[in-house]
Amino acid sequence: VTVNDPKDGASVFGVRFNGTDSAGNRLGLLCSGDKKWVVKSRTGETVAQAARCEPSKPYRVLLTLQEGSFSFFVNGTPLKPAGADAAALAKKDSEEIAHFYFGADDGMRDAGGSVTVTNAQLFNRAFTPEEEEYGDAYGDNEEEEGEDEEEDDKDDYDEEDEDDAEEGGDDDEEDLDAEDFASYTFEDSA
């Protein structure tokens, strides 16, 4: 994600829950007017802050839900709430995720900046600590040597797929690559 202009704060992305209380049904990541990464709770309170977010600089951002608690990461660094604020990121038993939003959500009208989001991906599995650190599931941030190895692995996978197709089966169901997941690029300005 790239924050183009934080102005008084730019809503980056978050999750909205079902329910009738529109003021208390979302968690989100923002770049504040003073250019800091901020996690906002359901009540609109700041529950975590991190280092500066610089305009026009690309960042890898990640939202995870593991063991009933949401976590936000920026370039692999978790934005951890302190003390009692940690409860603000816990998923309530009665909650269902209604949707994810990018840019301003209808309840985030006070955020007036703009953001560009590219390569948004949704996974239905837990990330490993290494994936959280790099902010992706494919090792796109590895050194060039690793990229060569990854390309070789992808070629091997493609050959295995062809062999399996000829044999009428797939013995390697757990091997997945980037083409197995939807990826969308779009721009949204708040």
From TrEMBL:
Pfam annotation, one family: TS_C
Comp. bias intervals (Acidic residues): 129-180
InterPro entries associated with the record: ConA-like_dom_sf, TS_C
Region (Disordered): 126-190
Trans-sialidase C-terminal domain location: 5-128
Name this polypeptide is given: Putative trans-sialidase
Organism: Trypanosoma conorhini
Origin organism lineage: Eukaryota, Discoba, Euglenozoa, Kinetoplastea, Metakinetoplastina
